[in-house]
Amino acid sequence: MLMKSLSILLFLLFAFSAYSQNPNDCGFALQICGNSSIGLEPAGVGEDEFLLSGNTAPACYSFNNNTIWLLFQFDEAGTFTFDLIPDNPGDDYDFAVYGPNVSCTSLGSAIRCSSTNPQGAGVTADTGLNIDEIDTTEGPGSDGNGYLKFIDVQAGDYYYVIVDRAHGSSGFSIDATGSAILPQQPTANDVSDLLSCDITGDVDGFTEFNFDDLIPQIIGDQTNLEVTFHQSLNDANIGINDLEISYTNKENPETIFYRVVNNNSSCVDVNDFKIEVPTEFEIALPQDLFVCQNSSSVSLSTDAGYAYYQWSTGEEGPDLNSIEISEVADYSVIVTNENGCRAFQSTTTIGSEIASIKEINVKDLSGEENSVEVVAEGIGDYEYSLDDMAYQDSNIFLNLPNNYYTVWVRDKKGCGIVSEAFLVLDYPKFFTPNNDGFNDFWKITGISEFPGSKIFIYDRYGKLLKDLRISSRGWDGVFNGKELPTSDYWFTLELDDGREIKGNFTLKR
């Protein structure tokens, strides 16, 4: 809350803002009332009132640094005196007084002007009007002691005072010390900070607050007052940019300033409170949930025991703290407790799926260079095996003999296995026709897959020994009823896909 004091507390900043409404413009001068407590954040020098033909700049000093205008309007006659006391004794404040009963467009000339440099004059930084002084102007530099002659005022008289900080960065306090009576200002009574959980719109720490219930507490038993609410201290002091009674916070937490105006005297008091949207409770969703896409569903759960659940899937209801999902996606839930307060949480599931084998690229009839590349598609992380033996990360298998194979592709997350058979076509490099049941025939496994193919076997001299039928069980090493001896023999393979392969093999006895 703003501090209450018998003095007027004024704070000046260096930032320049030529077009905003601030008390550094005469037209927005702050009215000083009895028991005033004012905090300010004005900026720069505002508009230059002394460019108007009816206004004369103070003769003792050029007021062009950081200024503020004050308005003193008296209910009862007496002496007008004040003490202006810088918060930092090293700061230097100057002032000028215009009046009585002038307007901001026709101020005339200053009737008091003080610009004494306190360090140069060897006096304190305090300045103002008092009963003892007789001079009406002093300064600049070491001239004067910082104080000027009092002013006799009548009931209803009003005066404008411009204050300028010539040097320094701190604020000041001002005490009206004379016998003339200023109008009594109202009191902006303290109110408690407002806490409201997030009950509407997105669950984002912003919600609607209603200030209407605060007004009776702010006013108390005072009468003929008006209360407005503002985002900034400056707006509250000047009375601009009123907030709606129903207000959605712009920050969390946020300070709200309220202004109380006495409709009879126009005197003002300002106070503040905080509004906040606290996190009343937190919920959790698993951040590493795994989903086998297009397969069986898994359970996505959050904390149980709350009043209502709204899922991003459109499912909602009381006690629905768990749903079944089968797709890889972003999911979220809004949970409402028994007080109507809500919490939000989201997660992105991790997904995989069973692979799809798109191609099996076989390089065959190349001996030790035989290989196969398995091309699998899917969002998973896959591993590969031939004939469901050891699995490997590589999708390429090398040095494959002539045979039928089955490749297995397995999702590492357990979403399934697919398989597909293929043939590596090649010829054996030897055979042993000794009737022991092993390698008794020279044959090419799987050649029947190419039914239009032809195989011709020759001796080393090019003599045709066998026109081997594709459907046969192979060559037994016999020519014209005679077993041929151990030796190398040659062949020509004419495949029905247009390829022609020539090579040799060994018959061993």
Explain how this protein is built:
This protein is mainly beta and 509 residues long. The chain folds into five domains: 8-176, Jelly Rolls; 194-274, no CATH class; 290-352; 356-424, Sandwich (Immunoglobulin-like), CATH 2.60.40; 430-507, Immunoglobulin-like (Sandwich). It is 3% helix and 40% strand. It contains three helices and 40 strands. The strands form twelve sheets. Strands 2-3-12-6-7-9 form a six-stranded mixed beta sheet. Strands 1-13-5-8-10 form a five-stranded mixed beta sheet, with no helix packed on it. A hairpin with a 4-residue loop joins strand 22 and strand 23. The longest helix has 6 residues, at 233-238. It is rod-shaped, with a radius of gyration of 48 Å. It starts with 7 loop residues before the first strand and ends with a strand. Residues 1-19 have low confidence and may be disordered.
Summarize the structure.
The protein is an all-beta fold. Helix content is 3%, strand content 40%.
Characteristic terms for this protein:
509 residues, mainly beta, Jelly Rolls, six-stranded mixed sheet, five-stranded mixed sheet, disordered N terminus
- pLDDT < 50 stretches: 1-19
**Which architecture name of the largest domain does CATH use?**
Sandwich
Q: What composes the largest sheet?
A: 6 strands, mixed
The first-level CATH class of the largest domain is given as Mainly Beta
Looking across the biggest beta sheet, what order are the strands in? 2-3-12-6-7-9
CATH third-level topology of the largest domain: Jelly Rolls
Could you tell me how far the N terminus lies from the C terminus, measured between alpha carbons in angstroms?
Answer: 110 Å
Tell the overall outline. rod-shaped
Question: What is the residue-mean pLDDT, rounded to a whole number?
Answer: 90
Question: What Rg do the Cα atoms give?
Answer: 48 Å
Q: How many separate structural domains?
A: 5
Can you count the beta strands? 40
Please state roughly what percent of the residues sit in beta strands, choosing from under 5%, 5-15%, 15-25%, 25-35%, 35-45% or over 45%.
35-45%
Q: Assign a percent range to the helix content.
A: under 10%
